[in-house]
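Example 3.2
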Amino acid sequence: MTQYIDFFNSQRQKIEADCASLVNSFREKAFETFRKEGFPAFPSEDYRHTDVTNCLKADYGFYLDRSTIKIDPRRTFHCNLPHLNSYGYFLINGYFYEEAAKNPLPGGVFAGSLNRFAEQYPDVFLKYYNRQANEKGNGLTAFNTAFVQDGYVLYVPENRLIDKPLQLTNLFVGTIDALANRRILIILEAGAQAKLLICDHTAEENTAFAGTQVSEVYVGENAVFDLYELEESSKKNVRLSHLFIRQETSSTVMLNGITLSNGITRNNCYVDLNGEHAEIHLNGMAIADDRQQIDNFTLVQHHVPNGRSKELFKYVLDENAIGAFDGRIIVAPNAQKTEAYQNNRNLLSSNACRMYSKPQLEIFADDVKCSHGMTTGQLDENALFYLRSRGIPEAEAILLLKFAFTADVLQQIRIESLKDRLKLLVEKRFRGEEIRCQACI
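Structure, written as tokens:
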């Protein structure tokens, strides 16, 4: 932690260079919060299995000058998600890649750099930026606010409908070990609709990258938002993510986070259902082997009556992989007629892998429908025997059972081309084949 405090004090001028003044205006308070709180304590109630201090203790470099990043991602890195037909954007080492828009967005919609949004929409920026992260975050989110230099903003004004998905690619590039701090701000005003796919990738397998990411999502009355996060990074990658979602009356959110390959991942998701009849579907899937680690923490708070939340997280672990799921649902005293369901199911394929699960319900209302559950085990021997008795080789039978185990998570995806592609990538992952959904040219 000391290294980052010294770095901020000595390099603040470079950190703030080329950043919007409004972005810089949040740094001082955030830095003081970080200096006071530090990184989340380990082990602690909410951080039992991920030691953030240890994850960030390496002597990472910082890309303080975006001009040193010499890459055109559309020429050197292409997407292999066929038929997605999306609006595409890039964050490279935390910086937004500016380019001329080939397909203009509907009138009034903004999708682009955090700095540019702060300059063009200062009132909207100040209304939403760092609001949830400051209220519900910790020393790690303050660290991100103090050091972040750029990010991505999606702003959809009232009653605007984006006709096709948006895709944001988070790309780590470089030959030196580096730390990047990314910021994502998503605002859907009343009646707006959008679908966003965020993909995490590393261009160099032999370089160690660490990334902190803070995402704030605001979904207005009657708005509909789908967010899909796909991590396909290297085994030397560290991902520390905080996602904050605030929903208003009759809004709907579909969230699906999938980890296909990684190093160490900690995903935090905080959901506040602030309006009646707000609904969220929160899904996650992780496939890990070797010594990979994936740790998901969720906190869903029902503040008002008639809200609905449904969580489903599945893990498939092998070799020495470590998985963790800590899910918490809180139903406030006046949140009657709430429906809240939470389910964590885990498939372990070796005796060496470990899964830690703690689903929790805290209910302070008496007229609700709530449940939670967890199962952890190995493949069904009877199902495996049945498939083998039908002439299916053992390896293929195991693959079919693993794929069937993940099917209900993939089925929740509401972009058909993405769903089809992910089914193929998951199958290839189970076969031990190359699974990169993006490739360097």
